[in-house]
């Protein structure tokens, strides 16, 4: 069960988080995804333009990060948010697009801890967690190399509080 999902990232970027769970009979309301608008607003010089993040995966699992009530939050924004709204905004953590111009980058220095979270707005059974950004592989410096996943039914700003439970911690080699 999960109300809030927190990823502690030790590199600069985490974007377009995909949180999936076993499909239930409940009708879900997803965020509006306007691909034409996202492409028009994209000022990334690379040839890759925004791509839709699916609301369901190939197994029919719901992407709860894209629910209308799912709220992103993060510790900081690169350039004190100076890139936003063109790119690298906190709301781009789960707005429904892959691509550099629809991404989030922390302002923390490489090697220091950064965090991003998505409050799902309710308690859900989560089957898998995935995140990605640059599917064209133009920016190879933006992959999460070390992260933890924490869950909580009740929010507490302090990720070391007893309300949080660490369910995964991975260093990628």
Produce the secondary structure layout.
Blueprint (H helix, E strand, L loop, with lengths): L1 E8 L8 E4 L13 H7 L9 E2 L9 E2 L7 E4 L22 E2 L15 E11 L3 E3 L15 E7 L12 E7 L2
Antiparallel strand pairs: 1-7, 1-9, 2-4, 2-8, 3-6, 5-7, 9-10
From the structure above, extract its key features:
173 residues, mainly beta, 5-stranded antiparallel β-sheet, disordered N terminus
**Which class do the helix and strand fractions yield?**
mainly beta
What is the end-to-end distance? Answer: 30 Å
Strand content: 25-35%
Largest sheet: 5 strands, antiparallel
Helical residues, percent = under 10%
What integer is the average pLDDT?
78
How many domain regions?
Answer: 1
Q: Which geometry do the CA atoms define?
A: globular
Q: What order do the SSEs take from the amino end to the carboxyl end, as H and E? A: EEHEEEEEEEE
Q: Taking strands numbered 1, 2, ... along the chain, how are they ordered across the largest sheet?
A: 5-7-1-9-10
Helix tally equals 1
CA radius of gyration: 15 Å
Report low-confidence residues grouped into runs of 5 or more. Answer: 1-18
Structure summary, number of beta strands: 10
Describe the protein in words.
The protein is mainly β and 173 residues long. It is built from one helix and ten strands. It has one helix spanning 35-41, and strands at residues 2-9, 18-21, 51-52, 62-63, 71-74, 97-98, 114-124, 128-130, 146-152, 165-171. A five-stranded antiparallel sheet has the order 5-7-1-9-10, with no helix packed on it. A three-stranded antiparallel sheet has the order 4-2-8, with no helix packed on it. The protein starts with a strand and ends with a strand.
């Amino acid at each position: 069960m999960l109300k809030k999902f927190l990823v502690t990232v030790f590199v600069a970027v985490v974007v377009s988080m995909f949180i999936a769970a076993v499909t239930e009979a409940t009708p879900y309301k997803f965020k509006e995804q306007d691909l034409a608008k996202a492409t028009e607003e994209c000022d990334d010089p690379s040839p890759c333009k925004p791509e839709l993040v699916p609301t369901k995966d190939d197994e029919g699992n719901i992407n709860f990060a894209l629910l209308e009530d799912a709220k992103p939050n993060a510790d900081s924004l690169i350039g004190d948010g100076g890139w936003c709204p063109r790119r690298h905004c906190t709301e781009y953590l789960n707005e429904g697009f892959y691509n550099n111009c629809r991404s989030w980058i922390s302002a923390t220095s490489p090697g220091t801890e950064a965090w991003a979270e998505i409050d799902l707005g309710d308690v859900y059974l989560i089957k898998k967690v995935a995140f990605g950004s640059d599917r064209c592989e133009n920016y190879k410096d933006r992959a999460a190399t070390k992260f933890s996943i924490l869950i909580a039914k009740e929010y507490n700003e302090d990720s070391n509080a007893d309300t949080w439970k660490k369910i995964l911690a991975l260093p990628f080699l």
